[in-house]
Structure formats: structure tokens, C-alpha cells
Amino acid sequence: MNKLFTLIGLLLFSGSLAMAQNIQNNPGSNHGNKFEQLGTILPTPNEQRTASGAPGVKYWQQRADYNIKCELDEKNLLLTGSETVTYTNNSPDPLTYIWLQLDENEHSTDKSANYQDATKMPMTGTTQSLDQLSAKANNGYGINVIKLTDATGKNLKYTVNKTMMRVDLPVALRTGQKFIFNIDWNYKITDRMSIGGRGGYEFFPADGNYLFTMTQWYPRLCVYSDFQGWQNHQFTGRGEFALTFGDFKVQMTVPADHLVGSTGECINYSAVLNPSQLSRYNAAKVATAPVEIQTLAEAKTAETKKSTAKKTWVFNANNVRDFAWTSSRKFIWDAMPQKIQANNNTVMCMSFYGKEAYNLYSKYSTRAVAHTIKTYSDFTIPYPYPVAQSIEAANGMEYPMICFNYGRTDVDGTYSESTKNGMLGVIIHEVGHNFFPMIVNSDERQWTWMDEGLNSFVEYLTEELWDNKFPSKKGPAYTIVDYMKLPKDELEPIMTNSENIARFGPNAYSKPATGLNILRETIMGRELFDYAFKEYSRRWAFKHPEPADLFRTMEDASGEDLDWFWRGWFYGTEPCDIALDSVKFAKADFPKEVPAARSRMIKVDKPAVNAFEDISKIRNREDKKISFYADKTPAAQDFYYKYDRGLVTVDTATATKVEMAMPIEVVPAADQGKYDNKFLYELSFSNRGGLVMPIIVEFTYKDGTKEIDRIPAQIWRHNELKTSKFYVKDKEVESILVDPLRETADIDTANNTWGGKAKESKFKTFKLKAGGAVRGQSVGTNPMQKAASK
């Protein structure tokens, strides 16, 4: 034991001197406070949101219930509606006005938020695209408010500000009171394939039919919250929604030959389905595979006969934050049940799709819906709703119990693997949004990542359980590397408002998803992570969480201090680049004769030089200001550079004695063989990227076996730039690889390896007199330069 302490003491002492020297040479560079607590960066805990990340005893949120009647005019592409809204004030504040969202105003030339981005003259385009770039006159799109009254029919004063509308209340609405009002409105439906947006219509010229996706289609309440008051970010098309939970009853009047899919449950299938459809729907409730309620042949027939009659479909949806629907005569419709064991809920999983997607959607869509809600339920909370639907609509967007996805075949009905996998990824992602943010209801208008990032992470878990070889693009650490290595002026932190993000996909989707996967697999471990993530989902189901609530809950439920990770991955833009700078190798040697000298000698052999040519080495060779030896070799100050090229030797190098204040007792003779056959290594690392992360080291031994050591990120705590780790091995190491599975998003793997021949060095230990002090002697001017380097 005494001898072991002697060896480790020498190595650690040398390291501490190097650390001190590094701080002296680079004042202020050692500590960037990467391990300090987030402190005031996070909002102060209070009675609404606790320091544990849980809702507080005085947490509150508002409620909005809707009764809506609307009619789809397919001929004139017009939607007309009337709604009665019951708004409940659960806040402690008296309200003198309320705010509603009018998202359809996004398409209006004079009602939109009109937060213009820079524009350029297009090289090619259409007259319609030029109209959009240059339009000034009213194009006729956007919500038209026909009438706004209170429950007694008295007109209410209102003000439309771009995509929002303020309704002035006759008297202040106090805590616990309800306010009932009525709105009549209409709007011209947009062609979403040419104008863009999430809702509207798609026209199919081959058969002359429309497919309508009715989203953000009704005036709806903004969130009034404890953390910001009224949500006041205008809708520009990117930052999505901050919405209030409530119950919906919606009646949609559409052409009689249309099928309607919607948020909620249809309560009048017996009135709108024909006997065959109703029989098949009832059979689907107990099926083990998707049952076609409307078949391909029936859909093709419906496309040729356009009814002038009307039908009204009625849907109820309870405790949802939004409501969307789709309508078309083109639809094939299939369904099957999925049991969620945790809450004994049987969910009708359904898909609606045109003939253009039949060969893909009939095989996979509804099965993927069922797989998704089951898997997400395992990782978060049990799916609480009665329905989950996937609609093929050539785009991807999500709403409670219904989502719109792409996935069409080629004209001949064939499809590629990439199209199939892309379709599956979109379906899993959009169905997954039922959990984030439809249930765990974050503010998408402010924090896209809390919606898209968390959902992309569980999407990755779900894809892997669908197919272990699924080509996931969001989640695995190595897939984010190209983004992480971009110049700093092209990056912003994850903690950036939705509207201000330059590279939206990597920042809001991939990077947070990757971070959570690194937490799960590399930092916390699956057991701790999964428990804490489920706790976050449980705590904030049907509530409005903020980032601090996630950060605090993950720490509170796992017992892990993760502030360093949130600080680096979510608040910073630095990448991970951990370099294996050098490898020292030694063997212990115990001579029989004890020399008279009272100093300890450490002999080193020729090091193995890191051949990686980084930019500093190249520029040093090109720099004419650096002096040269007679043989044109740069007169570098580094000892190893000279030593490796035979410019100095161990015998002639200037020796520096370093005194270590560590007394040692005589090594018992019985222990002297204890380390004779051991192999001693010291690995030195540098943090070149700036982001502190765990260090994962894979040793390959000369007999071909491998071993992995996982070093927690806290090894950087006392020096964020340099660190080292000492090992005693039973076998000689052939090569070393850092991050062998590419799980830390290291942007430069060229500096992660060591291998090849390394002559052994020997630690010579001597018996000292009682009370004597251990002294160390090293070669060169740097006390760290004692053994073989990389």
C-alpha cells in the first residue's frame, strides 16, 4: 500500500504542478464556471413553481371551453363559423381584457404580423411568388369577425392587432368567475401547397378533388400564465402555439360524400356513416390488424361523384388544448385498437389517406400510430385520449389526437426505402406530439425546443423500438457533429426564442434530442434518466411547464447535479472536442542495492509523438519569426519536440529537482513484487472544444481484448482545460481510443487515439531512512515531461 501511494503521489504531484503552471501561463482561462450552479439564470422558485421543478401549492392555469358550429363551402373555398366560448379565470388577478389568437391572419397582406425578413430579387419564380413578395393591397385572406357579443347578446368592444385580438370586458373578471361570449366569423381558405402554412386545402387536378386540413381555424384563447401574464408573441408561421385547456363540442357541416377525421370522438357516426362503414368501424374496435372502413375502391368511386348534399359531423373532445380536423371525399379510412395497459385505455388508432399513398399507408400508418402511443406511454405517461389519427396530407403537423403527415408512393404505386422511412419518422414524430406539447403543454411560441426537442428525443427511442436499424437522424450523438462544428456566428444556444433561430432544425429538434439521449445513455444511465423523465411528464401533464421546471425535475428526481450540462448544452454553443494528448507508460523496478543518494530518479524513454497536424503546428513551421537550428529544425521550447528528433537526450537534459512533501515509510520486502508485472499508464487529456463532457476510454490490449472506462464529466471540475487519469493494468495496452461509440458528439475524432510501440520506463524505488522526504527528479524543464507521450 505504501509503495502504491508513492507512485500515485508522484504522478498526481506532477499533475498539480502542471495545473499551477497552466493557470500561471493562462490567467483566467482555467475556470469558466462551467460547474457553477445556474443560480439566477433560472427564475426564482415560488408558490406556483417550486425549486424541485414541481407545480407549487398555488399553481393555477386558466380554462377555455368551446362550442363551435362551422360549415365548409367547397365550391367557394370558404369556412364560416360561430362559437360560444366560456372562459374561466383561475388566476389571482382581476382581468379587464382577454386576448385571442387569429392565426389565419398570417396569410393576410394587411392583417399579418408582417415581421419581414430580408428579401432578394429571385432568379426564377412565378407571378404568384412575385405577388407575395410585392403585395400591398388586401389579398382577402385572414379572419373576418362578423359579430362579437356577450352572453346576453350585447356587442363587445375589440381590437385586432395583427394575428391577435383583444376583447375588452364590460366589468373586471375576478378570480373564479366565468365570462361567456360569442363570435361569428369566416375566412377564405388558402391553398397551402402554394401559399404555405399548416392549414388550408390541396387540390388534385387529376380527379378534381380537394383535401382540406382545418387547423388554427377558429379564434382561440391565448394563455394567461403565472410566468408571463398574457402570451403576447404574434404568429409568424414558425413559433407555434401557447394554448389553454378546455372541452370542445364541434359540429362540422361538409359535403355529404366527405369523410371527416377530427380531434376527439365522433358522437354521431350512426347518422353520417352508411351501414357498411358503420359495421366495419364496429369490427375495427376489436380487430388485431387495421380494418378498412372506407376501401380504396370506394374512395375512387367517391372521387368521381361530387355530392351537392350536406352532412353534419359532431365531435366531442375533453381536456384538450386545441382542435383540428380534415375533410375530403378522397379518403381511404382504416382503424384498429391499441390497449394502453397502464391506464386500461383502449385507443382507436386510425389513418385517413388518398389513393396516392395507399401502398404505404395501408401497410404502415395505423400500425405506426399504435406503436407510437404505446411506446410514448411507456416512457412518459399513459395515453389518456380515446383516439389517435394519422392523416396523409403531404406535410407534417400535429394537433390533439390528429396529425398530418406525408408519405405518397410513385405514380405506379412503388416507393423507395427512404420514402418509407421518412413517412414512418414523420408519423411517429407527429403522433408523438400528442404527449409534447399537447399534454405536457409547453409554450411553443417561446421555446420550440421544449416541444420539438423533447418530442424528437422520444421519437428516436420509438424508432429504435420499431426497427433496431432504423436510420434515425435526431438523437444519436454523432448525427449532431456537423452542426456543432459550425462557426460560432452561425450558432445560437438552444435557449433561444423560436423566431430568432437561424438553423431551426438542428437547434430546436436535433440538438436538444441529442442532449437528452446523451444524458440517458452516457451521463445519468437509463434507470435514473427514465425515472426522472417520467416524473417530469407526470408532474406537468395538462399543465404549462417552463424550461426551469424540466431542468429542476430531472435533477430532483435523479439525485444528479446537472447544472453543468444545462449550462453547456442548452445555454452555450461550445462543442465537445476532447483530445488524448499524451500517454505515459511505466513499470516499477525494485533494485537490490539502495544507493546513497536520497533522491528518487525517474527515467524516461523515447516518446511516441502525436502525428496529428493541427493548425498551430503547421503555422509554427510557416512562421518566419520562429528561430531555427542549423538543420532548419524549429527551435521550439517544447522538450519533447527536441527529444524526439535527437536534439537532446535524457542524459544531457537539464534536470530539475522537485520536492514532494510526502513522507514515506520503508517498503516491506514482502510487497516488493506486488507490481512487478503491472503496467502503469497516465493519460492526459485536453478540452479543446470548451464543452465539458464525460471521457470514455477504450483500451485494446496486446492479446486483443478490450476494456472501457467511463470517467464522469466532473473530472474537469478543477481544471476545465486539462486533466489526466492514472491506471494500473494487468496487461500491456496496444492502443487507446477515446469515445469509441461516438456518444459525446466529439467534433474531432482525429485526436482521440493512441497506439503503437512505447518503450517501457521504470520507476526505481528506494528505501529511505525514517523521517526522510521523497524527492523526484525529472528531465526537461516541465515536471510533467517524465514519461512516454502520445
From TrEMBL:
InterPro entries per UniProt: Peptidase_M1_aminopeptidases, Peptidase_M1_dom, Peptidase_M4/M1_CTD_sf
Q: Name one GO cellular component term.
A: extracellular space
Top-level taxon: Bacteria
Q: Which chain regions cross the lipid bilayer?
A: none
Coiled-coil regions listed in the entry: none
Q: Which UniProt keywords apply?
A: Signal
Any one Gene Ontology BP term: peptide catabolic process
**The UniProt record lists the keyword Signal:** yes
Q: Is this entry keyworded DNA damage? A: no
> Any signal peptide, and if so, which residues?
1-20
Q: Peptidase M1 membrane alanine aminopeptidase domain: which residues? A: 370-569
Q: Which SUPFAM superfamilies does the record associate with it? A: Metalloproteases ('zincins'), catalytic domain
Q: What molecular functions are annotated in GO for this chain?
A: metalloaminopeptidase activity; peptide binding; zinc ion binding
Name of protein: M1 family peptidase
This chain's source organism reads: Pedobacter frigidisoli
